[in-house]
Design a protein that fits this description.
Elements lengths: L4 E8 L4 H13 L7 E7 L7 H4 L4 E5 L4 H11 L6 E6 L3 E2 L4 H10 L4 E5 L10 H4 L11 H16 L15 E5 H7 L8 H17 L3 E4 L8 E2 L8 H9 L9
Parallel strand pairs: 1-2, 1-4, 2-3, 6-8
Antiparallel strand pairs: 4-7, 5-9, 6-7
Length: 254
């Protein structure tokens, strides 16, 4: 019986292959808790996958370098219709614990109407648009830079026909798990060429799913509890203490 889940990894020609190698080593180190196939979707023709890594993938796709990781993810799921569920990762990611895939599957299935599960619910943007735009008297301090960004994202969503909803709440597009049914219903990921439009597209994907009546959920209590990323430190107290002792700091991308 073929797996119903495919893990889709995005890579691009500007990254060293060492990123992908570290991710695959961590994937192989920890039992996923579920059967799955592995797919690689590469942005750019210059990226060469070593034969030892290529052997571990059921599917490898190469495309033009457009649309960042969302473009690679969207390209892949549309070409893999035989699966029911998709876990999307960036190649900078690394698996942190066993049963990492099972936790995503169970989180999506645990709640009727759950449409998207991720590693990081971005609380910094979980505010009403009026607050982010500086148009209310809530007393919540929003910097001028963030107000400008919020205005740009809000306008982009409107221009693309995506209902912004009441808030800018979203799951970051570093690690995401969803179903083919949801992807088909919202017509996949918005694909944009510029960096700032790509951030708007990150918000837009969550807002499309919410507008369709689904809820958004973080897989664990702490962000990046199952699958990590160099830009995002976990919030688990023990992990934060270890990172502090190593002298590491957290750098947010939004």
């Amino acid at each position: 019986m073929n797996p119903s889940i495919v893990v889709i990894i995005s890579a691009w020609e500007g990254h060293p292959v060492s990123f992908l190698r570290r991710l695959i080593e961590s994937v192989n180190r920890f039992d996923a808790g579920e059967a799955y196939d592995l797919a690689l979707s590469v942005n750019g023709s210059e990226y060469q996958v070593p034969s030892d890594l290529a052997a571990g993938f059921r599917h490898i796709m190469q495309r033009e370098n457009v649309g960042f990781n969302l473009g690679a993810w969207d390209h892949a799921w549309r070409r893999l219709p035989e699966y029911d569920h998709y876990l999307f990762l960036q190649d900078e990611c690394f698996v942190r614990r066993k049963n990492w895939l099972r936790r995503f599957r169970r989180r999506l299935a645990s709640e009727n109407g759950c449409g998207l599960v991720g590693e990081h619910f971005n609380t910094g943007w979980n505010h009403p648009w009026e607050t982010l735009l500086g148009q209310d008297d809530s007393g919540h301090a929003v910097s001028e830079k963030k107000r400008r960004r919020a205005a740009f994202y809000f306008q982009m969503l409107q221009d693309w026909g995506i209902p912004p909803g009441d808030t800018a709440a979203h799951l970051t597009t570093v690690v995401q798990y969803t179903s083919r049914r949801v992807l088909e219903e919202v017509d996949g990921y918005p694909i944009r060429k510029s960096y700032h439009e790509a951030i708007a597209a990150e918000i837009g994907f969550s807002r499309k799913i919410a507008a369709a009546g689904y809820c958004l959920r973080q897989v664990g209590r702490w962000r990046h509890s199952c699958i990590g990323h160099p830009q995002w430190q976990t919030e688990r107290p023990a992990e934060k203490l270890r990172a502090l002792l190593r002298g590491k700091t957290c750098r947010e991308v939004l």
